[in-house]
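Structure ticket #2291
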Amino acid sequence: MALRSVAGRVGALARFAASSTSYKLLPAALIRGQSVLPQSNFHTSPFRFNNNIIQIQDNEDFDKKVLKNTVPVVLDFHATWCGPCKMLGPRLEKIVSDNDGKVILAKVDIDEHSEIAMEYGVQAVPTVISMKGGKVQDTFVGLKDDAALQSFVDKLIA
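Resolution: structure written out below.
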């Protein structure tokens, strides 16, 4: 009797182990790269890339896209480790996007481009500088509310 209950437990354990560690086969459509979801569930409008927001890559890129630009530019000096920068960045991006080509946002990572940051006297982040015709118009350091950001950009555009 004891042997039968042990054998029953071992059999149950084996069935559990087999069921919990077995791999499920993928549908052939997934293997071929096809979707198994109906097409009507997908958003089909094209992705809209915002040309008004740029990441500065190097000094030459900065000269071309900021200093020689005929459109007013908002420079966002930020760092990846900076909490306030992460809060300010999306808000600036939205305001620039809403102005539809009247202003450009150039994002400068101070850890990657310390020479540009030093050239503009950046001592803390976030630092935001507005430029028109390659000349500094206005500057602020730290976070601002949405109304102050909008006013900052509006003053540059005017």
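Closing remark: Helices lie at 2-21, 28-31, 59-67, 83-98, 114-119, 146-157.
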